[in-house]
UniProtKB/TrEMBL annotation:
This is Cysteine desulfurase. Keywords: Pyridoxal phosphate, Transferase. Its EC number is 2.8.1.7. GO terms for biological process: cysteine metabolic process. InterPro entries: Aminotrans_V_dom, Aminotrans_V_PyrdxlP_BS, Cys_dSase_SufS, Cysteine_dSase, PyrdxlP-dep_Trfase, PyrdxlP-dep_Trfase_major, PyrdxlP-dep_Trfase_small. Residues 25-396 form the Aminotransferase class V domain. SUPFAM superfamilies: PLP-dependent transferases. It catalyses: (sulfur carrier)-H + L-cysteine = (sulfur carrier)-SH + L-alanine. PROSITE patterns: AA_TRANSFER_CLASS_5. GO terms for molecular function: cysteine desulfurase activity; pyridoxal phosphate binding.
Amino acid sequence: MVKDISKLRKDFPILDQKMNGEPLVYLDSAATTQKPKQVIDAINNYYLHDNANVHRGVYELSERATNQFEQVREKVRKFINAKSEREIVYTRGTTDGLNMIASTYGEAFIHEGDEIVISYMEHHSNLIPWQQLALRKHAKLKYIDMLDDGELDIEDAKQKITSKTKIVSIAQVSNVLGVINPIKELAELAHKCGAVMVVDAAQSIPHMSVDVQDLDCDFMAFSGHKMLGPTGIGILYGKLNLLDKMEPMEYGGEMINLVDLYDSEWTDVPWKFEAGTQDIAQVIGLGAAIDYLNEIGMDNITQYERSLVDYALPKLLSIKELTVYGPHDPEKHTGVISFNLDNLHPHDLATGLDMEGVAVRAGHHCVQPLMKYLKTPATARASFYLYNNKDDVDRLVDGIIETREFFKNGTI
Ligand code: 7TS
């Protein structure tokens, strides 16, 4: 390991400030992560020295920008172990990628009576595109059940995935429960039935080593801003033979081979999916984020986050009146932990924590069907990343206890 994980906090100057008079503890990385100086510098350097539009200039500056832009594609390929860099499509984020699959692949290959299988824990981005596709096509949307601790019920998956299934789309990690889903097993079930396996990797890619060939998934979508990169950039991975069969989602500059008055021809994958001027600086920023993560090592990041969860879970579980959702076994968890204090709305809990400088998210987390399943309108959620430490866990636990006491006694 080149970088010492306990010393990297200095790379994130934003963390060194006070909120409500208390040092900031940022526990909302599932919403978006903070950015290290290295990523911010890479974006600055690009604008200061290398800015030009890509794929269209023959002058040196444009070639330099194009080279950097395309080098990140290779970096992403390597990061997820895709076979070819042509399987890497730049998107705006996970939402964009999942919508793209539903409205291109889905539009072409889903027909009346076909089935699409998802789960109750899917983020709205991995639910609504399939729900609307099913409505348009008169196809059926099916939900895999969950076990009591929030794990997917694989026996139920075996029942629900059938010869009628054309698409199975599941999050590798839930953004509420932190539970890790068995994608490889699900891909096997999907393929046995002739369906494609789509993976929402928004909450997994930043936290663990992901190998698309080992998982044997057909598509995968994720966001740069949840993995130390900037907003506005995401990746859609797709197997080349599938991407080749798909129509572009958008038409315009740079995605064509030939344009005639009454018809046009598309250029090759992946560029045929990248119409118009791309988010070049954001791509460069994503490349710097991948370099940063690689320098630490994804397995080290997983291990470090697990040590935080190992430390946090027993402390949280010991707080009287606190319900902790999802598995209580740290092995089955990433650094996302959702909870509720009895008789207190999670917004009040989050506000109490904010008074202590602790930033957590409260709400339905864009997973309303899961809230219904858990029989709660909302939860509070702490999500840890590589810049958090055990002091942050202590501040969270103390903040919850103080908020509980405040609402009991009226003082904080
Ligand atoms: N899928 C999952 C599992 C997510 O957690 C999110 C965002 C998305 C898709 C959408 O990603 P986007 O980058 O396109 O917006 N999740 C959250 C969250 O949990 N809190 O804020 C955003």
